[in-house]
Amino acid sequence: MKIILIGIQGAGKSTQGNLLSEKLKIPYLSTGHIFRELAKEKTPEGRYIKETINAGYLLPDEKTLSIVSNYLHRAEYNKGYILDGFPRTIAQAKAFENGIDKVVYLKVSDKEALWRLSGRDDVREDDTLKAIRKRINLFHEFTEPVLDFYREKGILVEIDGEKSIDEILQEILSELEK
Ligand code: AMP
User: Fold this and answer.
1) Degrees (nearest 5) of the Cα angle 98, 103, 108?
2) Ligand 1 within 6 A of 85 CB?
3) Centroid of ligand 1 to alpha carbon of 53 (angstroms)
4) Number of structural domains, the chain?
5) Which of 5, 29, 35 to mutate to test the pocket of ligand 1 (most atoms within 8 A of CB)?
6) Which domain holds residue 40?
């Protein structure tokens, strides 16, 4: 099964992604995590990625697409995956027609997300308030059209991300069975 998780930062994508991965026995993959690893490399590319993610900007579609498709060609993703953080733009979604079964939109308000993120104690280097605000704004501008794209395909599932972690997980699981 191929599942995409979409939502603003702080919506609970990695929490649910990891829980789903355990339940469904399929691997979880986050493009944010991949890019944070690449940003550690002391090369011009590593420095470029680091600056981009620390500012909260999106990496170019072409670079993102080639990195994601390289990963997904690995044998461990043969039977499916739970993908978090991709696609984030219409261009990425259109270029990525990969037999996706369901796209789960974890819906939380900007206010709730900011409140949750302010309470985190595992703060990352790219998690300044400015970068978080930028990411949320970019979500509304570039990623909301991606939701419409999958809604039209009939594979979008909208989940109220402000419920408890367990309620959300149960709702996602029951939607995936449909
Ligand atoms: P995330 O952890 O998903 O918020 O991702 C952290 C950062 O990685 C983002 O702010 C972007 O700079 C970059 N990134 C992750 N996924 C994508 C994507 N699909 N397209 C472009 N940039 C991305």
Assistant:
1) 145
2) yes
3) 7
4) 1
5) 35
6) 2-177
CB of 31 sitting under 6 A from ligand 1: yes
What letter would DSSP give residue 141?
I
pTM flag (> 0.85):
yes
Residues 24-44 pLDDT 10s: 999 999 999 999 999 999 999
Q: Are strands 81-84 and 28-30 parallel, antiparallel or unpaired?
A: parallel
Which are the contacts of 106, defined by CB distance < 8 A and separation ≥ 6? 5, 6, 7, 11, 12, 13, 16, 159, 161, 168
State how beta strands 81-84 and 102-107 pair: unpaired
Going from the Cα of 162 to the center of ligand 1, the distance in angstroms, rounded, reads 22
- Is any atom of ligand 1 closer than 6 Å to the C-beta of 143? no
Q: What is the CATH classification number for the domain harbouring 77?
A: 3.40.50.300
Q: For residue 33, give the ligand 1 atom closest to its CA.
A: 2
